[in-house]
Amino acid sequence: MASPACKGTYAGALKALLDQLPPNALAGVLGVPVVTADVQSKADIAEIRLAGLLGDLGADVVDFGLTATGCELSDLPAVADQYVAAAPLTNINGRNLSHHSVQT
Length: 104
Known about the structure:
alpha/beta; two-stranded parallel ribbon; 5 strands; 34% helix
């Protein structure tokens, strides 16, 4: 799930959309919060909040999401590659995932 950071949290439109989902609508789904922002501190806060929301909807949320700021936004595939290298997606809630599961 991806969102730009807006005043330290995820976009209101995303929240409005997710509020329409029933409880545990994302049960069994791997949740990777992805947040873009102008500064890292805002991205970090929004990522934590988005991870919490995904978890509240029943998603299996990774330990930390992907954030991108400023000039990183011009090369998102490189940001995704760095994320995968830093946080290999393996054995999350019994799932055996490979790096090839992440698409940019």
